[in-house]
Design goal:
Helices cover 58% and strands 4% of the residues. By secondary structure, the chain is mainly alpha-helical. A two-stranded antiparallel sheet has the order 1-2. The radius of gyration is 40 Å and the shape is elongated. The relative contact order is 0.05.
């Protein structure tokens, strides 16, 4: 079979392609608004990026010509600016009794009498007025966190639990510790 001349094949191919594109026209027309919108969005974002690049280059050039001044408003204070003398006087004392205070074991310093005199803490003052039960000394109760106490409760008798509860109420009166001990006493006596 003889092949048609190149020009004829080109014209027939163009006609077939035009016919196929005509058949696809209803679908293509539906897609045109989306295509146009995405093209416009792409162009807008590209222009914004180019403008931002120009502004950054301009800022860099202006910083080289006019170096920025290290100005700080009078009203602005930062932790680094405060010396040791301007630090808030918390003396290590807990400011809140929030849920995170349950896990801390250090008592704050209430005050100092002077340079040569001894510091008085809450725990040392309370130890002087409250007798520590033997179970509290055995467990080192003063240093236990709530989670550590919870882990040790299963092995204690009801009398030990009551002694710890009385000691807690007389000394630190921490509500979570009191609740934990009271609930354990209730469960132990119900068995």
């Amino acid at each position: 079979m003889a092949t048609a001349p190149y020009g004829v094949r080109l014209i027939v191919g163009a006609a077939v392609t035009a016919f196929e594109e005509t058949l696809k026209l209803p679908q293509t027309i539906l897609m045109y608004p989306m295509t146009v919108a995405s093209t416009v969005a792409h162009i807008v974002m590209k222009v914004q990026q180019d403008l931002a690049d120009l502004v950054i280059k301009g800022d860099a050039a202006l910083e080289n010509i006019f170096p920025p001044k290290d100005e700080q408003p009078e009203w602005a204070t930062f932790d680094e600016d405060l010396g040791d003398s301007d630090a808030p006087a918390g003396n290590g004392e807990r400011r809140t009794e929030g849920r995170f205070a349950l896990y801390s074991v250090a008592d704050g310093v209430e005050g100092t009498a002077g340079k040569g005199q001894e510091t008085v803490t809450k725990s040392s003052r309370k130890k002087a007025t409250v007798t520590v039960p033997p179970i509290a000394e055995e467990l080192d109760y003063e240093s236990l966190t709530l989670a550590q106490l919870r882990a040790r409760l299963q092995s204690l008798s009801v009398a030990d639990l009551e002694a710890l509860l009385a000691y807690e109420e007389a000394s630190k009166s921490r509500a979570p510790f009191q609740t934990l001990l009271a609930n354990r006493i209730t469960r132990a006596t119900a068995k």
